[in-house]
Specification:
The chain is built from six helices and 43 strands. Strands 19, 21, 22, 24, 29, 30, 31 and 34 form an eight-stranded antiparallel sheet that branches. Strands 20, 23, 25, 26, 27, 28, 32 and 33 form an eight-stranded antiparallel sheet that branches. The chain has a six-stranded mixed sheet with strand order 3-4-16-40-39-17. Among the domains are: 147 residues, no CATH class; 81 residues, Beta Barrel (M1 Pyruvate Kinase, Domain 3), CATH 2.40.33; 227 residues, Sandwich (Jelly Rolls). The relative contact order is 0.17. Helix content is 10%, strand content 42%. It has 652 residues and is mainly beta.
Length: 652
């Protein structure tokens, strides 16, 4: 828990703190009073400085949850001398009702390590084919048509235990209904290979069981944490403290183990997708794309229009643009109903554009790659172009960023050029362009590092300044690629356009999300409304993670309400914190201005793993009584079970 608290505060600082056009570097700090950061502005978290119990606080109650173990058969171990004849059959009865006969099964000797896995894979394939082909039958011989049971049968699996050299068949976990039970039975059939597989008789056979999962009551603790802020001037420190007062105030709540949705979650859904890397959508976000969005942008849920040559890569690989393919997003559209709060120019002070860019290899001198352009009434507001130049023996991709600003009835163009090695562009780079309207300069950075203006090779000419007001307007179009074509394919794995001239985020922020593979079955997941990227609103939803498949997490219960990917934060815990002390520790000799803020974080320390307790049902016994029939005075009334899932701190 303490590790999560430190990481959560560091994540919040990386996301929320920016000072002018420079990103605020963030890292774990040092208790040594003589420590000085190598670069400023700098934000660090130090802790734990103290751990205290809170006896006056309610520790919480023991939480419970039900866990289902499916009915299964485990075969007897197979040795090198055992074998299975090819073309055999296997007849199964699942859940006491669904009959299926699998034929044409492969054979082989168990002296080969590949035989067992091949048989298990073949059984899985045959079961799936039988389900899709409607081959399951009722005990009467009629085709099985019950949709609830058919949906459950999709979970039937065959697995090979390589360590024990045995085959296991598992049914579905069971259905919360008295009509079905979870079980696997082998029935006789002509040409059966059940005995050869070790399933007749099996080593172990068991019907599905429901267990009670139990967690001990958590212990209430308080952890002292120190946040150090360094800056090179009083003005920079004041700007950082301004943001700290909003992002990390004197008291508030902090989320732990944050994640972001990879897709919108509709009401009633039982699965959700999580991003492996990403950044939250901000209140001033005009357009926001992540690799997994597949046709929708996150800021307002707008559509991404693709032309031939542009495509979303599978497995969240990003947006690929080749040839004349383009991807277009509408930015700041005019509302259908007139809105007095809708500004004609959404970014009069400037804006920032960041994108993850990877260019295909094979570049040659003189080639030009049109990366993207933001158009307002057919006038380019911001344009990014990549031009390849040969300097000596090294090939560079020159990033040319231009912006159009209005001043005194006319327009002028600001331009900045930065040469990056072609090999770096092929490996992938995080580009950030910031237009400050007052200065009239487009400032560039790559992977969080600002452009070296004093390096004559990287910056052959100083930026061209054009102070004014950006020609941004309503109904702008942001286009990646160009209909005139591109000589090199390139991929954009994310894009973020913000209506504010902010500096780049710390690149470590995108990698600090909790991806789906890091979620364990039994973990608590909470969904919360989030408008600024790090603070949670009042609306919440809580469930347990039942299973993880790739970037998809299966939940213990249907989702209540709908959740937009750009306005939702997924997390596993939240803590209350309050400020205990604030101190200035300036080092004027080294021109370092420092402020230290102490916080006390109140948290519940709890075990992460559930304990399996007693069986709730050892053997179900059903004694039906006709409706309306008289019951003796000593008879017990009918009994029913309602299954309730609970999480670590109460009902979910």
């Amino acid at each position: 828990m303490i590790r999560e608290i430190l990481s959560g505060m560091l994540w919040q600082g990386r996301l929320a703190l920016r000072s002018g056009g420079m990103r605020v570097f963030a890292a774990h700090g040092y208790v040594d009073e003589g420590y000085r950061p190598s670069r400023v502005p700098f934000f660090s978290v130090v802790g734990p400085l103290g751990i205290h119990s809170e006896p006056e606080r309610e520790n919480g109650r023991t939480a419970t949850s039900t866990v289902r173990v499916p009915g299964h058969l485990i075969g007897r171990p197979r040795g090198p001398g055992d074998s299975v004849p090819a073309g055999g059959a296997l007849k199964l009865r699942l859940d006491g009702r669904a009959l299926v006969t699998l034929t044409g099964l492969p054979g082989g000797s168990f002296a080969s390590a590949a035989t067992g896995p091949a048989l298990a894979a073949a059984l899985d394939t045959k079961l799936a084919d039988a389900l899709s082909g409607g081959l399951f039958q009722e005990p009467s011989g009629a085709p099985l048509t019950d949709p609830l049971l058919l949906a459950a049968l999709a979970a039937v699996t065959a697995r090979w235990d390589a360590e024990g050299s045995r085959l296991a068949l598992s049914s579905d976990p069971g259905i919360p209904s008295l009509d079905f039970r979870s079980s696997v039975e082998v029935l006789p059939v002509t040409g059966s290979i059940a005995a050869a597989l070790g399933l007749e008789p099996p080593e172990r056979a068991q019907e599905g069981r429901t267990y009670l999962s139990k967690l001990r009551a958590p212990r209430a603790m308080a952890i002292d944490v120190q946040v150090d802020l360094w800056a090179g001037s009083q003005v920079d420190l004041a700007a950082i403290m301004d943001t700290v007062a909003l992002a990390i105030p004197t008291r508030g709540q902090m989320v732990l183990r944050p994640s972001l949705l990879g897709a919108d979650v509709p009401e009633g859904a039982t699965k959700l997708r999580l991003l492996s890397q990403g950044e939250p959508t901000l209140p001033l976000s005009l357009a926001h794309l992540e690799a997994s969005d597949q046709g929708l942008e996150r800021a307002r849920g707008g559509r991404v229009d693709l032309t031939p040559g542009a495509s979303w890569l599978p497995d969240s690989g990003g947006l690929r643009l080749s040839g004349t393919g383009t991807a277009t997003v509408r930015v700041h559209p005019t509302p259908v109903v007139p809105d007095s709060f809708h500004p004609d120019n959404p970014a009069p002070e400037g804006f920032a554009l960041s994108l993850g860019l990877q260019v295909a290899p094979g570049a040659a001198e003189g080639q030009t790659v049109p990366v993207g352009v933001l158009l307002a009434q057919a006038q380019p507001v911001l344009r990014l172009v990549l031009r390849y130049v040969l300097v000596g023996t090294r090939l560079f991709g020159e990033v040319v960023a231009t912006a159009t600003l209005a001043r005194e009835g006319g327009t002028q163009v600001a331009e900045t050029r930065w040469r990056l090695l072609a090999s770096r562009l092929e490996a992938g780079v995080l580009l950030h362009a910031r237009l400050d309207a007052g200065e009239g300069v487009v400032w560039l950075s790559a992977d969080g590092v600002p452009q070296p203006l004093l390096d004559a090779e990287a910056t052959p000419a100083p930026p061209v300044a054009a102070p004014g007001i950006p020609v941004a307007a309503s109904d702008m179009l942001l286009t990646l690629g160009a209909d005139t074509g591109t000589p090199l394919d390139f991929t954009v794995d994310h894009l973020h356009l913000v209506a504010d001239p902010v500096g780049p985020l710390d690149p470590a922020l995108r990698r600090s999300l909790i991806a789906a593979p890091a979620v364990r079955p039994g973990d608590v997941l909470l969904l919360g409304d989030c408008d600024d990227g790090y603070r949670i609103g009042k609306r919440r939803f809580q469930a347990l993670a039942l299973a993880v498949d790739g970037d998809e997490v299966t939940l213990s219960r249907p989702v209540e309400g709908s959740w937009a990917r750009g306005r939702t934060l997924v997390f596993q815990e939240e803590c209350f914190f309050f400020q205990t002390q604030l101190r200035r520790k300036d080092d004027l000799l080294n021109h370092l201005y420092r402020c230290s803020v102490d916080y006390r974080v109140s948290a519940l320390m709890e075990e992460l793993n559930a304990r399996t307790g007693a069986r709730l049902v050892e053997k179900p016994v059903v004694d039906p009584v006709p409706r309306g029939a008289s019951r003796a005075a000593s008879g017990h009334p009918g009994t029913f079970v309602t299954e309730v899932d609970t999480a670590k701190r109460g009902a979910v």
